[in-house]
Amino acid sequence: MQQPLIHFKEADILNGENVVIYSLNMDVEPGDFVYIVGKVGSGKTSIIRTITAENRIHKGEATACGYNLVNIRSRDIPYLRRSMGVVFQDFQLLQDRSVEANLEFVLRATGWKERGAIDARIKEVLDAVGMGTKAHKMPHQLSGGEQQRIAIARALLNKPAVILADEPTGNLDGETADEILFLLRDLNAAGTAIVMVTHNRGIFEKFPGRVFACENEQCHEVIDEGIDVVL
Q1: DSSP state, 55?
Q2: Can you say how many angstroms the Cα of residue 82 is from the centroid of all Cα atoms in its chain?
Q3: What residues contact residue 4 under an 8 Å CB cut-off, 6+ apart?
Q4: What is the rounded distance in angstroms from the CA atom of residue 36 to the CA atom of residue 11?
Q5: In whole angstroms, what is the distance from residue 96 CA to residue 163 CA?
Q6: What whole-number distance in Å separates Cα of residue 230 and Cα of residue 37?
Q7: How far apart are CA 158 and CA 117, in angstroms?
Q8: Looking at residue 166, what DSSP letter applies?
Q9: How far apart are CA 219 and CA 164, in angstroms?
Q10: Is the Cβ–Cβ distance between 166 and 86 less than 8 Å?
Q11: What is the rounded CA–CA span in Å between residue 87 and residue 145?
């Protein structure tokens, strides 16, 4: 039986020293598209930070991409993070270098050495997100939507089984946000699991997926159609 990519069982989620979500139960399977929704401050991003081992588990079980998050060793954290892609609301591109150099930096930092393989992988991920002609551009020469596409390309570099997207459309207008969602849906259809944090009800109503709602220090999957989610 295939193991979940991400598994929480009765896990208490911390923000700093404080528990923000008690007894989280969540399994993300290969190929899933999962939303984590809720008001600002409800613990959504703390779940993402726990998956990437930025936050430690207070109590319960937690695994991600084959790593036990409860007792993960510091030297294993970079390998955990290489097994997943992360996309942020504010893009987090290096502003002093081109798109191509941004992507090369990540590949070399994660162990790639051969020039031909690096060039081929950069071309592959840029083509995958519709940015094949933008390798030479500087980030400030790109629109917000284009920068987010580059950020998604960066997340794809090491062929992750799952992409964690933390409010990836938060700084984009509605039309551009839809374009990013269509791109994420296409990546999901090709087999990459997506876990997306959002407080925008319109997104998960327009682009359906599994929904976990965070409120009142709890996070539970919304099963019933039409159930109200407080945002």
Answers
A1: S
A2: 12
A3: 27, 28, 29, 63
A4: 16
A5: 25
A6: 9
A7: 12
A8: E
A9: 17
A10: yes
A11: 13
pLDDT tens sequence across 137-190 = 999 999 999 999 999 999 999 999 999 999 999 888 889 999 999 999 999 999
Q: What is the pLDDT of residue 107?
A: 94
> pLDDT tens-digit profile of 75-121?
999 999 989 999 988 888 999 999 999 999 999 998 899 999 999 99
133 burial level (CB within 10 Å; 0-12, 13-18, 19+)? exposed
Sequence-ordered list of residues with C-beta below 8 angstroms from that of 191, at least 6 positions apart, any chain: 30, 31
Ramachandran angles phi, psi of 133, nearest 5°: -100, 5
Q: Which helix (H) or strand (E) holds 198?
A: strand 193-198
In a 3-state reduction of DSSP, which class is residue 71? Answer: coil
Residues, the chain: 231
pLDDT for the residue 160? 94
Within its chain, how far is the Cα of 64 from the centroid? 13
Q: Report pLDDT digits (tens) over 2-33.
A: 789 999 999 999 998 899 999 999 999 999 99
